[in-house]
Specification:
This is Cytochrome d ubiquinol oxidase subunit II. This protein is mainly α. About 80% of the residues lie in helices and about 0% in strands.
């Protein structure tokens, strides 16, 4: 097999893992104002992802590193052309991570409200902008003969890209809400299921528009097949949630996001960054990849360490598989809540 094509698939795999895993992290963060009736509820929601959110985030770091090593031309064009959008994502992730660590350092309601707001914004901004970025990559952007992006940030905010951003935003939101219903109990679990029903219905409509738009603009049989499977998985997740089968609903939603990401990479293939005004300036798998020696070394490293990473990730989720309830919140948090509401 051509190693450049293999690494195109491996990069796709890393982004699938990132969007599936950090996707529900984003959804939990965005759901705070919708499901968190008091601070204890919000603590429960944050605790559902507390042991894993930082581990989930490392997937984008590994994916970026793989992109840099395997496709340096693609990496250079992407990170220079999409600089402001990616900087906003990075700042949002930093703010979100800091907020997780600092919100519980003081008991004041204003202190926690401030950091809760940063968690919400720090979750919503990447959820939207990642969809905008990938939609633009698939659609094609203005590249010159040197493979430099010649547009602006506002050129990236076109109609197709905005629909792509709304699609990832709604999918991640619903994914997170389903995860909350899977990991909590009692009234919070019931409210999460009801919210997932409503957000899931909206996500189905918006995702159908985006996938249909992509199929018309960048049709390929492989993309069409993957898009249909993604749509079926999304509807199955919504039905499973209606029936109270949170595990199946979460699994189908994870499959939806995975298939959607793979379908976008399939629509992109064999390009890695198409040039919309002049196809001759496009970056392809062939002209953007590293040398054969570099790809060979990377393949051996991936063959050794990638299985270890997957085993460790699976073990972590197994250890923290139990539901989180209000009874798990320390007594002082409940006392603080009674003081605030008294």
């Amino acid at each position: 097999m051509d190693l450049a094509v293999l690494w195109f698939g491996i990069v796709a795999f890393f982004f699938v893992g990132y969007f599936v895993l950090d996707g529900f992290d984003f959804g939990v963060g965005m759901a705070l104002p919708f499901l968190g009736r008091d601070d204890v509820d919000r603590r429960v929601m944050i605790n559902t992802i507390g042991p894993v959110w930082d581990l989930n985030e490392t997937w984008v770091i590994v994916g970026g590193a793989a992109l840099f090593a395997a496709f340096p031309e693609w990496y250079a064009t992407l990170f220079s052309g999409f600089y402001l959008a990616l900087l906003l994502i990075l700042l949002a992730l930093i703010v979100r991570g800091v907020s997780f660590e600092y919100r519980h350092q003081r008991a004041g309601a204003r202190w926690k409200k401030w950091f809760d707001g940063m968690i919400i914004v720090g979750s919503a901004v990447p959820a939207f902008l990642w969809g905008v970025a990938f939609a633009n990559i698939v659609q094609g952007v203005a590249l010159n003969a040197n493979h430099d992006y010649t547009g602006t940030l506002f050129d990236l905010l076109n109609g197709y890209a905005i629909v792509g951003g709304l699609t990832t935003l709604l999918l991640f939101f619903t994914h997170g809400v389903v995860f909350i219903s899977l990991k909590t109990d009692g009234d919070l679990r019931a409210r999460a299921r009801r919210l997932a029903t409503r957000s899931g219905a909206v996500a189905i409509v918006v995702a159908a528009v985006f996938l249909g738009w992509t199929a018309v603009s960048h049709f390929s049989p492989v993309f069409l097949a993957l898009a249909i499977f993604a749509a079926v998985a999304l509807v199955a997740s919504w039905i499973a949630n209606l029936r109270g089968a949170e595990g199946w609903s979460f699994g189908f939603m994870a499959a939806t996001i995975a298939l959607a990401v793979v379908s976008l990479f399939a629509a992109l293939f064999p390009d890695v960054m198409p040039s919309s005004p002049n196809p001759e300036n496009s970056l392809t798998i062939a002209n953007a990849s590293s040398s054969q020696t570099t790809l060979t070394i990377m393949t051996w490293v991936a063959a050794i360490f990638l299985p270890l990473i997957l085993v460790y990730q699976g073990w972590t989720y197994w250890i923290f598989r139990k539901r989180v309830t209000r009874d798990h919140i320390p007594q002082e948090a409940a006392d603080d809540q009674r003081t605030v509401t008294a």
